[in-house]
Amino acid sequence: MKLSVKGMPINKAVANIGRSIVIKGWIHRKRSSGGKMFAVIRDVTGTVQCVIDKGKVGEKGWASADSAYLESSIIVKGIPRRDERAPGGVELDVEELQVVHSGEQFPITEYQSAEFLLDVRHLWLRSQRMINIMKARAHIFRYARDFLDKKGFYEISPPLLTSAGGETGASMFEVQYFDQKVYLTESSQLYAEVMVPALERVYSFAPSYRAEKSRTTKHLAEYWHLEPEMAYFDNSKSMALQEKLVSSIANRLGKADEETVKHFGVSPESLSGIRPPFKRLTYEKAIEILNDKGDKKKWGEDFGVEEERLLTEGEKLPVFVYNWPREIKPFYMPVNPKDDRTVLCADLLAPNGHGEIIGGSERIWKLDELMERLGEVETTQHVKFDKEKYSWWIDLRRYGSVPHSGFGMGIERVIKWLLNLDHIRDAVPFPRMMNRIKP
Ligand code: 4AD
Ligand code: MG
C-alpha cells in the first residue's frame, strides 16, 4: 500500500460492514494467539479491533505486525464485520497491512507515576485520557469565542511582552528585552481597555503569566486567559454576561461532547443544567455565611481554598462573590458609591471546590478618581506605580472615556471544573509549573 492511500476515519469505517476500507492509525493494544493477532488501532475518531490472520496477510505482513510496538503507526486495509464480543460491536478482518513506522518500544506501560507521565508528556498526550481532554479543550475555546462573536465582540491581539504590570505586579516573570528588563504579561486587561473606544466590545484570548510560588492544583505559571472588556457595562451587567458565557460553554460541551465528558464521569445532563441566574453574594454576606459555618474569616480578609469550598459546597452552579474590600483588590477597580469600604467587582467561584474561574470588575473611567485610587493603593497596598509606564493607559481617561467593565476567565480552571479533573496541569498540553518547564 502507498502511504498516500486514502484512509477513512475509524468512526466512519466501522459502519461499512462487509466493504473493504482503509484506516490509518496507531497500535493502541496488541495480543496474539496461534496464527492470529488482535490489534486495537486508534485514530482521533475512535478505536477498532483488527484481526490479523497469518494466512491472509502473508509472511511479510505478519512479520511486520508481529515486530511492531504499541504506538507504532500503521495503515490497515480490511473489512468491518459485526461481532457482539468486540469492543464497539465491530471487528475488522485485515486483508493487507503496512507498518509505517515501527520505531522503538513505547516507554509508557500501564501503571506509571504522575511524575513520570509528566516527564514523558510528549508521549502521554496520545493517551485516551489526554486525547479526550485536548478535544474538550479545543471545543471549549471555540464555544467561548462563538458566544462572544455572536454578541458582537471583536477578538483583539494583545502584546505578551509588557513594560508594566496589569494586575498586582507582584508576581511577574522578568525578560531581558534588548537593553532593558520587561515582563511577561500577567493580564491583557489594560490593552483590552485601550481597544474599547475603538471596538466597544472586545476580548483577548491569550496566555497570562504568573510567577506565584504556589504549588496548588489550581495554579499554572502560564495559563490561557479569556479577557472580555465592554463599553457601558456595569458590574451587574458584566455578571449577567459571565453567567451566560459559562452556561453556553457548559451546555454545548454537554451536548456536542457527550461521549468525551462521560469519560471523566461527568454527566452531560449536569452540564445542560447549568444556566443563569447564578447566586450572587456580596462579600459581606459571604463572610456571614462563612462565620455561620464556623470559618473564622474577618471582614477585610481574602479567601483561600477552604472559604471557596465552603461557599460552593452543595451548589450545582457557580457562585458570584461581589463588592470586595478595597484594600485587597487592584488599582483599576472603582470604589462602591453605596459603601466606600468596597470596590465594584466580582469573583465567580466554581462548585466542588474548583475555585475561582473568573475575576472581573467595573473600571475607573474618570481621571481624578483614578489618580486618587492609584495614590491610595500605593499607600495601603505598598505598590509603586511608575506613572510614566502607565501613561498610555491613564491617557484613556483624558479622551472620550466611558464607563466600562471587563473580566478574566482562566480557561484551564474552567476545563478542570467542567471535566472534574484533580489537577489543573492536565487541562493544558504542556503545563508550566514551578518545578516544570520540560517538555
Ligand atoms: O483574578 P485575576 O488575577 O484577574 C485579572 O487578571 C484581571 N485583570 C482579569 C480581567 O478583569 N480582565 O485572574 C483572572 C482569572 C482567575 O479568576 C482565574 O480563573 C485565572 O485567571 N487565574 C489562573 N489560572 C491558572 N493559573 C493561575 N496561576 C491563575 N491566576 C489566575
Ligand atoms: Mg482573582
Protein traits:
single chain; 439 residues; OB fold (Dihydrolipoamide Acetyltransferase, E2P); BirA Bifunctional Protein, domain 2; 2 domains; 16 strands; 26% strand; binds 4-amino-1,4-dioxobutan-2-aminium adenosine-5'-monophosphate
Verbal overview:
The model has no long low-confidence stretch (mean pLDDT 96). Helix 5 (128-150) crosses helix 7 (235-256). The strands form 3 sheets. This protein has an 8-stranded mixed beta sheet with strand order 6-10-11-16-15-14-13-12, with helices on both faces. Strands 1-2-3-5-4 form a 5-stranded mixed barrel. A hairpin with a 2-residue loop joins strand 1 (21-33) and strand 2. The chain is built from 14 helices and 16 strands. By secondary structure, the protein is an alpha+beta fold. The longest helix is centred in the N-terminal third of the chain and has 23 residues, at 128-150. The chain folds into 2 domains: 10-101, Nucleic acid-binding proteins (OB fold (Dihydrolipoamide Acetyltransferase, E2P), Beta Barrel); 121-427, Bira Bifunctional Protein, Domain 2 (BirA Bifunctional Protein, domain 2). 4-amino-1,4-dioxobutan-2-aminium adenosine-5'-monophosphate binds next to strand 11, strand 15, strand 16 and helix 14.
